[in-house]
Amino acid sequence: MARVSQTAERRSEFLPILAAAFAELGYRRATTAELAARCRVRENVLYRLWPDKKAMFIATIRFVYEHSVEIWRRVLDEEDGQASAAQRLLQYEARHVGEFGLYRIVFAGLSETDDEDIRDALADMYRRYQKFFADHVRDHRHGAGGPDAGLVAWAVIGLGTVASITRELGLVSDRQRARLLREVGAELLETSGGT
Amino acid sequence: MARVSQTAERRSEFLPILAAAFAELGYRRATTAELAARCRVRENVLYRLWPDKKAMFIATIRFVYEHSVEIWRRVLDEEDGQASAAQRLLQYEARHVGEFGLYRIVFAGLSETDDEDIRDALADMYRRYQKFFADHVRDHRHGAGGPDAGLVAWAVIGLGTVASITRELGLVSDRQRARLLREVGAELLETSGGT
DNA sequence: TCGTTCTGTAAGTGTTCACTTACATTATGC
DNA sequence: GCATAATGTAAGTGAACACTTACAGAACGA
User: How far apart are CA A148 and CA B154, in angstroms?
Assistant: First the structure.
């Protein structure tokens, strides 16, 4: 034997760079030449780490999910007696939504959904997000009535999505976007169950 | 002079076909060869109607907006003494959201937002949608308090977006998706203004 | 009927891209 | 120190794509 493989380390070294590139350029425009240049290696180095470009993209989707969940966990670990976890997540997003270009990667993926592998990776990511929020919504209400917490979680994801879109397209001011997430988000959490 | 030009008619003849193609394939995968084949003409025929592929896409975005607004107007014209216009729109979407692949075109556009023209076309489209809904939200409440109707309109758009995503990725059943739009949508309309 | 313009067909063209191959260099276990 | 496998450099390849050009036929006003 000679020289132990650094494959795993290199993968996690490059993933944030790939994520930034896919977020900035979208799937098609992020050419393998561009990805390699940003990683400061040649293309074939990337091809030793992943079988093809699609695999790089799917790995990026997973990375982005884990990255943002990690950030959220850190936010939740900060002590704050007043607000529930769900409220704190909304407040955090009110200030930082769209910051890391997560949604640009998701949009890129959503226009590639005729590819089964990409669709599966996205579906998996959304399921995890929804479960994450739904748990916190249920916790926020601890047992009280209201519409299905799962549905509210989807609505919160929708709120984050539209917030990112308005940011991306310059449709509303930062101030208004923060209000959107805080005020409408609070309403979603507080609703006492209609129909 | 000889032979009068049919340019305008042909454009509107092809637009629904282009819309279907972009919705099904996304921007990059909808190659000009594929677009032409679906229109049953050669590529250069399309290039006589629009200067380039981007112009075809932007024309499609506008078409899709006008198409869905026309449908909504028809829904609103049907008499229904009970429900407000906003409620009827939500009920309609609960049954038909994502049906025409509108959001796939939007997603395709959102991953091309580094192109100024595409970004502008999308921004314009969103502004119109938001105004359309905001007017109906205000009307629904006729003067009563609550969070800014403009913000609620954005939230409704978010709800429609996430509904389309869950449909696209097969994440929730049709039944649950209808509940999401009807129940959570109703909550958004009814909120009496928090903070 | 003639001339002009619209409309259709067919075959390029230059570029870009995902992915590959060939080979030189370097680190490390034995 | 030497064999071995990891790592780096450089060039290339075949396919796909946006867009073009050249030309033939068809409609229609004069």
Answer: 22
